[in-house]
Specification:
The chain is an alpha/beta fold. The chain is built from 6 helices and 5 strands, in the order βαβααβαβααβ. The two termini are 28 Å apart.
Length: 164
């Protein structure tokens, strides 16, 4: 049976590292939003404009879903490491999955802010290509802190919380 896993958590929680590991464990195709955004739009970004970013994130979501839908139709597993900052974003993919008769899972990564901040600083220094797409500075980190919405128990019904 095909599985669709939505990985979410605040900045620096380890979503990409977790997704890479999980994709190997369950033989899944993994999509991560950061390289898409970096490749397609980073050269055009002139300021930290949330609405500008989200418009482009949503464009990526549509293209990623078109491919994911094909994988799921072939009974393959898909891991979406797309940030899923808001309940609305997660709900959008829940509905798409249910239209395919796939019950999505949310894997919510939770870690204290100070731990996440240190991870981001380390990632910025090391620039490991498997998890690094762009530098997350203090302004970006703090900006995104205000945007993340913790998943509800209802959202986590078929998922799990991973304490990092």
């Amino acid at each position: 049976m095909a599985r669709l896993i939505l990985v979410c958590g605040p900045t620096g929680a380890g979503k990409t590292t977790y997704s890479i590991s999980l994709s190997k464990e369950i033989d899944a195709i993994r999509f991560s939003i950061d390289p898409w955004m970096q490749t397609l739009f980073s050269e055009d970004m002139t300021s930290l404009d949330y609405s500008w970013m989200m418009e482009r994130v949503n464009r990526c979501y549509k293209q990623i879903w078109q491919v994911s839908e094909q994988i799921l139709a072939l009974n393959g597993n898909v891991i979406l490491d797309l940030g899923f900052t808001t309940k609305k974003q997660r709900q959008y993919f829940f509905e798409l999955a249910r239209n395919l008769s796939v019950e999505p899972e949310i894997h919510y990564l939770d870690a204290p802010k100070d731990v996440r901040k240190k991870r981001v600083e380390k990632r910025n220094i090391e620039k490991d290509p498997s998890v690094y797409s762009f530098e997350v500075n203090n302004l970006m980190f703090n900006f995104m802190e205000t945007k993340f919405e913790i998943p509800s128990q209802k959202e986590l019904k078929n998922g799990r919380t991973i304490e990092v």
